[in-house]
Specification:
The complex is a heterodimer of chains A (116) and B (116). Chain A has strands at 3-5, 10-14, 19-21, 24-26, 31-38, 44-50, 56-58, 64-68, 73-78, 87-95, 105-106, 110-115. By secondary structure, chain A is mostly beta strands. In chain B, the strands form 2 sheets. In chain B, strands 2, 4, 5, 6, 9, 10 and 11 form a 7-stranded mixed β-sheet that branches. A 4-stranded antiparallel β-sheet of chain B has the order 1-3-8-7, with no helix packed on it. Chains A and B meet through strand 5 and strand 6 of A and strand 5, strand 9 and strand 10 of B.
């Protein structure tokens, strides 16, 4: 079975500092990995994905994520945080072996709070 | 591209009424759409997978007679909460996926349903 863990309920960082939001996953085969961001009372916005290839994936709004197969992690990073980055971040995984409806499994979310 | 529109964004109604939520893919065709429910400060819970022209696939524990899903075209899926009760109050989010095994899901902005 697929699963995702986001160990931090909340991450606090000062504006201008680098940020990291952690995610680890578990799948039986090779994973498809995704990061989404959710603003209050809104749906999820796609940030980036890892399918194959380079372990460092660059996405929207200056975010990037590093796929680490040995540590089964896919941490989200940004070199310099903005106050407007404050939101709820979800990591999601899909097993490449899952050839059915290709549903995603989401983590519990991490709230990012960037202070001015 | 890949815009998903969800309507209405907010619904308040009396207990016992039925509520229909629409999910449209505006600039792409979506063979598969997904319906999620999100409780406050929690992750997304997949309710069902909606496939154009066929019956929806419901997750374990989700009542198919309670949450009716219709996916009549490649751009529209609807979720009807029948005989809604206060415990059905929640944030409902739909998503649609472009064809292709490694495509991300794109989400609507969600519908906040409040049953009095």
């Amino acid at each position: 079975a697929q699963s995702v863990a986001q160990p931090e309920d909340q991450v606090n960082v000062a504006e201008g500092n680098p940020l990291t939001v952690k995610c680890t996953y578990s799948v039986s085969g090779n994973p498809y990995l995704f990061w989404y961001v959710q603003y209050p009372n809104r749906g999820l916005q796609f940030l980036l994905k890892y399918i194959t290839g380079d372990n460092l994936v660059k996405g929207s709004y200056g975010f990037e994520a590093e796929f680490n197969k040995s540590q089964t992690s896919f941490h989200l990073k940004k070199p310099s945080a903005l106050v407007s980055d404050s939101a709820l971040y979800f990591c999601a995984v899909r097993d490449k072996k899952n050839t059915g409806f290709q549903k995603l499994v989401f983590g519990t979310g991490t709230r990012l709070l960037v202070s001015p | 591209g890949a815009v998903v529109s969800q309507h209405p964004s907010w619904v308040i109604c009396k207990s016992g009424t039925s509520v229909k939520i629409e999910c449209r893919s505006l600039d792409f065709q979506a063979t598969t759409m997904f319906w999620y429910r999100q409780f406050p400060k929690q992750s997304l819970m997949l309710m069902a997978t909606s496939n154009e022209g066929s019956k929806a696939t419901y997750e374990q524990g989700v009542e198919k007679d309670k949450f009716l899903i219709n996916h009549a075209s490649l751009t529209l899926s609807t979720l009807t909460v029948t005989s809604a009760h206060p415990e059905d109050s929640s944030f409902y989010i739909c998503s649609a996926r472009l064809s292709g095994s490694n495509q991300p899901q794109h989400f609507g902005d969600g519908t906040r349903l409040s049953i009095l």
